[in-house]
Specification:
The complex is a heterodimer of chains A (476) and B (223). Chain A has 23 helices and ten strands. With 476 residues, chain A is an alpha/beta fold. Chain B is built from six helices and twelve strands. In chain B, the strands form three sheets. A six-stranded parallel β-sheet of chain B has the order 1-12-7-4-2-3, with helices on both faces. Chain B has a four-stranded mixed β-sheet with strand order 8-5-6-9. Classes of the chains: A alpha/beta (476), B alpha/beta (223). Chains A and B meet through helix 2, helix 3, helix 4, strand 1 and helix 8 of A and helix 1, helix 5, helix 6, strand 9 and strand 10 of B.
Chain lengths: 476, 223
């Protein structure tokens, strides 16, 4: 089973590597994002200061997570926002469906939300006879083509304008073929304005939920998020439970970090802060606001003092942009909703190592992700932890299905290594033998695979002990 | 069902979270230097113009003349506005004094709730609103929509015109939150706006007016 999936991932990777168009699209886009981020974070000292603040805010929020979530719930309820708790994505889907059914609603417009992708909400609603329309331009494009996002910020980045022109022409009735980006945008605007106009319920994600005031903060550039959260009579917001922050004053630094890291912007076009449904004599805004708070494994991640740093993530996507592996294979190859470095640490913890542990191998541990992460998640350290847990025989390992890769050959090899290194005489003999035989070892079995892209190290004829002795250096 | 889920989630969270001793440590704020009035105006202007906002810095006494010019130039036929506000009163007065030679657009009122006004709202050319303030550091205006100036005024019409008093521009967002004591009085909705609606979802090519206004025009009033 595990091997099947590993095989799939490898196949995905080699398929992606062969797709020249895909690689070109990603290379261009990621290069651009790196440049834009650099321009906005041009002052190293200030950036470092910001990252330290951002990281501290998230540490503070996570150390008092249950308290803050209780406070958020109490404030929201007080403000008139209805709060729902979901342990699993299936439960969250049911909650959305129940709200839709209460209103006999069949038309839903959606703002961009990665949690809704995690839930597989669109497919679920479709099976239940509900039309769920993505309204973020990138999400709209890939929904038309029945695809999944390949990037958490720019979901359709794997498509070029010719491909998009074809999708619009084929999937939207009475649409001429045009590669003009302005014209493509105009087509989307016209099509989606009709959807907004008729929608019965709007759904959105949440970037930050403020416990102090019960405020949901959403950032965007297009305005579709504001449409979804203002125009329909009902608004449903879905969020992972790690999105809560303590107070309003935490927002300014986090927003700077989020938009600077994500798109190289000082601020997005809109920062939308929602604290209640339509009140009293107010003329617009939804009459009902629901907040669905999803766990889906997050509370378990919190239990581990090292791995809980995964929950710092503010979903800016900059680790994807800076990852040399992601840039070459794109988001789809990873096979899970969250691709790239953050996906490589998040998916195995949520889905279990058997299913997703192989993702943690797709890294050279170059540290680029850790260097740019706005909330200082030490992604490479966590990757190594997950790799270790995959092989671990330790009863204290915490990740689901840890030790699934443990096997006899590996265990024996390491036992042998341990034995050699704790028995100096045998070690000395062994080194002599390897000095002679080493260069003649045929590259078979695991060695063959290992040496495919690496040169076999040369075994020295003499050990360090010997060399030192010969040079006459003693105990210095 | 939901309540049992809630209990289980909280019991896991409580079991997981051993509050660290530093839990109460305050996070230092972002360091910043308070800017003078002119600097704040210039900074906000520069940043917002860079994301294609049209900015007019005008004397508070005759800004409506500039507005009229802009409305004429763009051939705006309908302007959504909020009566019973300072801006609304000023517009009503000027419009009623007009003998037709100014070719002014029709002033439209947000009549009733959105359910009744929706059809009309989607036909309006432009809307004019007040602002709660501005943020120099990132370049943005702050809107606190209310009963008189509903939320969709700044979103649905293709042109949004906002009026901002220069002295209400804060140096940073944090300063605005603290000075105005937001935590104690968050309204239904607050929105920061830095420019017209835009997207770069197709090949990272920037395009404006994808869902919200295609144009944002800000009058900064100086005394």
């Amino acid at each position: 089973m595990a091997n099947d999936i590993e095989f799939d991932f490898r196949q995905n990777v080699s398929r992606a590597l062969k797709d020249k168009q895909l690689r070109k699209n990603f290379k261009f886009a990621m290069g651009n994002f790196i440049l834009k981020r650099k321009q906005i974070f041009s002052d190293d000292r200030e950036t470092e200061q910001l990252r330290t603040i951002g990281s501290a805010i998230k540490v503070r929020a996570l150390t008092r997570l249950p308290l803050l979530l209780e406070q958020l719930e109490a404030r929201c309820t007080h403000n008139g926002i209805q709060v729902h708790w979901a342990e699993t994505t299936a439960e969250a889907n049911q909650q959305v469906l129940r709200i839709m059914n209460t209103h006999r609603a069949t038309r839903l417009v959606k703002g961009k939300s990665m949690v809704s992708e995690e839930m597989g909400l669109n497919e679920f609603l479709q099976e239940n006879g509900i039309e769920a329309i993505e309204t973020d331009l990138g999400e709209f494009i890939i929904q038309l083509n029945a695809e999944k996002p390949s990037h958490i910020i720019v979901p359709a980045i794997h498509k070029n304008k010719e491909q998009i022109a074809r999708i619009f022409h084929e999937k939207i009735p009475d649409t001429p073929y045009t590669e003009n980006v302005e014209a493509l945008n105009a087509i989307a605007r016209k099509t989606l304005r009709q959807k907004f106009f008729k929608a019965q319920v709007g759904l959105s994600g949440v970037n930050f939920a403020v416990a102090e005031t019960g405020t949901l903060c959403l950032v965007e550039n297009e305005g579709n998020g504001r449409m979804c959260t203002t125009l329909p009579p009902v608004h449903i917001a879905v969020m992972g439970l790690e999105k809560v922050v303590e107070k309003l004053a935490d927002l300014p630094p986090l927003l700077r970090l989020l938009t600077g890291s994500a798109t190289g912007q000082l601020i997005t076009t809109y920062v939308n802060m929602i604290t209640s449904p339509r009140k009293g004599s107010e003329k617009d805004g939804p009459r009902e606001v629901h907040l669905v708070i999803l766990d889906n494994g997050r509370s378990e991640i919190l239990a581990d003092p090292q791995l809980r740093q995964t929950l710092h993530c503010i979903r800016c996507g900059t680790c994807l942009n800076h990852c040399p592996v992601y840039t070459r294979i794109g988001g789809h190859a990873y096979g899970f909703v969250y691709p790239g470095p953050i996906g490589m640490i998040l998916n195995p913890q949520v889905e279990g190592l058997k299913k997703a542990g192989v993702l943690a191998t797709a890294s050279s541990l170059c540290e680029a992700c850790a260097e740019v992460c706005p909330v200082k998640i030490p992604i490479p350290q966590l990757l190594r932890r997950l790799r270790n847990e995959s092989y671990s025989s330790d009863t204290f390992c915490t990740v689901k299905e840890c030790g699934y890769q443990r096997n006899l050959i590996d265990s024996l090899a390491w036992k042998g290594w341990e034995f050699m290194n704790t028995h100096p005489r045998i070690n000395a003999v062994g080194q002599k033998i390897m000095g002679i035989l080493g260069p003649r070892v045929p590259p078979l079995g695991p060695l063959k695979q290992w040496t495919r892209y690496r040169a076999l190290p040369k075994f020295a004829g003499k050990s360090l002990h010997q060399l030192v002795e010969e040079q006459g250096v003693e105990n210095e | 069902m939901s309540n049992r889920s809630r209990d289980r989630i909280f019991s896991r969270l409580q079991a997981a979270g051993k509050p660290a001793s530093s839990a109460s440590a305050a996070t230092p704020g972002l360091p910043f230097e308070a800017l003078g009035l002119d600097e704040r105006v210039d900074k906000l202007r520069g940043l917002m113009e860079a994301v294609r906002t049209e900015i007019h810095v005008v004397e508070a006494t005759n800004w409506i003349e500039s507005l009229k010019g802009i409305l004429r130039k763009r051939e705006i036929k309908t302007l959504l506005y909020a009566p019973d506000t300072a801006i609304g009163d000023a517009l009503t007065k000027q419009w009623s004094a007009d003998d037709g030679s100014d070719r002014l657009p029709e002033l439209v009122v947000y009549e009733g709730a959105i359910e009744e006004f929706k059809d009309r709202l989607f036909q309006i050319d432009a809307a004019i609103t007040s602002t709660q303030g501005g943020i120099a550091e990132t370049g943005a205006i702050i809107l606190w929509p209310d009963r008189k100036e509903p939320r969709l005024m700044s979103l649905v019409p293709p042109i949004h015109i906002a009026v901002l008093a220069a002295e209400k521009i804060y140096t940073t967002f944090s300063e605005a939150i603290i000075t105005e004591n937001w935590p104690d009085k968050m309204p239904t909705n607050v929105v920061l706006i830095s420019g017209p609606s835009k997207t770069a979802d197709i090949e990272l090519t920037l395009a404006f007016g994808v869902h919200g206004p295609k144009e944002l025009i800000v009058f900064i009033l100086k005394n």
